[in-house]
């Protein structure tokens, strides 16, 4: 179970120390790093997270329990500039310094701005990330959380932002830990498995999009080769207040997970085979979930514990 922790105050409430996050969460995404210009990335801690020393100690304590703590880049309002060899070098070095200082396990690429077909970032971001992994080593954790139009959207229309993450994903297949697109805020989704768009937030939609990422799909005049099941998850809102659309009930999350891993409780859409190694669920966000009384994490974790 993967969740985003706010390093800022919003209507869900003020930032609080990582130590206060429930141990139900397996991967904690610290949201977000800042664009320091020229490819450089920085991190400014919200005072609510505690002192720098406490933050570092909290990360170590969570890691001692087997959790991954990952620094997320981007978000709704954030940007990252990696448009040249120089900026790629700055990106790598600045992130390596942050990871070393705070003890992060890796990075999450959650860019919702600046990625489009033909953009230089499609070329230089993979170079920067590969160099970062080379410095960190084999334990480096890399995730991506694009809005679905940037990935599966390429099936419908390949251009502009539609499918714009695909070249980045293809370039980083060997480095990628998990891809968990955001299936919210962007409406219903067309897939190869239905003539009509599949309703956002439905179990069928979660199964269909995961199937596309694992089994592959056509985009433009190309084929997206499927990822390993353990490299794929799905991203849903933690509650009705945390996203404008795409709310998914606990029952639909459970049905989708059981369908993908065991071919149980499937609806209209079924994968070609059971994928017991399917990675799991991402949500926005840990803070909203806490605000709502753990209405997402408690039932979701209970389901995850029953899976293969």
Would you mind describing this structure in some detail?
By secondary structure, the chain is α/β, with parallel strands linked by helices. The chain contains 9 helices and 11 strands. The strands form 2 sheets. Strands 1, 2, 3, 4, 5, 6, 7, 10 and 11 form a 9-stranded mixed β-sheet that branches. A two-stranded antiparallel ribbon has the order 8-9. The longest helix is centred in the first third of the chain and has 18 residues. It is globular, with a radius of gyration of 18 Å. The relative contact order is 0.13. The mean pLDDT is 96.
> What does the largest sheet look like?
9 strands, mixed
User: Radius of gyration, Cα only, in angstroms?
Assistant: 18 Å
Q: Low-confidence spans: pLDDT under 50, at least 5 residues? A: none
- Structural class by SSE content: alpha/beta
The helix tally amounts to 9
What is the general shape? globular
Percent of residues in helices comes to 25-40%
How far is it from the N-terminal to the C-terminal residue, by CA?
Answer: 15 Å
By oligomeric state, this entry counts as single chain
Taken as a percent bin, the fraction of beta residues is: 15-25%
Look at the structure and give the mean pLDDT. 96
H/E topology pattern: EEEHEHEHEHHEHEEEHEHH
Q: How many beta-strand elements?
A: 11
């Amino acid at each position: 179970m993967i969740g985003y922790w706010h390093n800022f105050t919003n209507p869900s409430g003020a930032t609080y120390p990582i130590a206060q996050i429930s141990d139900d969460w397996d991967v904690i995404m610290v949201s977000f790093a800042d664009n320091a210009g020229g490819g450089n990335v920085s991190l400014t801690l919200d005072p609510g997270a505690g002192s720098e020393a406490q933050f570092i100690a909290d990360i170590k304590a969570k890691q001692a329990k087997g959790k991954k703590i990952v620094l997320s880049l981007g978000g709704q309002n954030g940007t990252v500039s990696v448009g040249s060899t120089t900026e790629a070098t700055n990106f790598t070095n600045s992130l390596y310094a942050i990871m070393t200082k705070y003890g992060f396990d890796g990075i999450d690429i959650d860019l919702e701005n600046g990625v489009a077909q033909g953009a230089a970032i499609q070329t230089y971001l993979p170079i920067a990330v590969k160099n970062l992994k080379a410095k960190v080593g084999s334990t480096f954790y890399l995730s991506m959380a694009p809005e679905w139009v940037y990935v599966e959207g390429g099936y419908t229309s390949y251009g502009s932002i539609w499918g714009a993450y695909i070249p980045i994903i293809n370039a980083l297949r060997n480095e990628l830990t998990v891809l968990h697109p955001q299936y919210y805020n962007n409406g219903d989704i067309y897939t190869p498995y239905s003539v009509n768009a599949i309703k956002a937030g439905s179990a069928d939609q979660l199964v269909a999009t995961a199937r596309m990422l694992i089994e592959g799909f056509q985009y433009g005049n190309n084929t997206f080769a499927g990822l390993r099941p353990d490299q794929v998850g799905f991203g849903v809102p933690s509650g009705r207040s945390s996203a404008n659309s795409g709310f998914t009930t606990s029952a639909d999350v459970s049905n989708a997970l059981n369908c993908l891993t065991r071919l149980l409780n499937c609806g209209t859409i079924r994968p070609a085979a059971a994928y017991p190694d399917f990675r799991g669920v991402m949500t926005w966000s840990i803070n909203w979930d806490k605000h709502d009384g753990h209405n997402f994490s408690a039932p979701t974790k209970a389901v995850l514990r029953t899976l293969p």
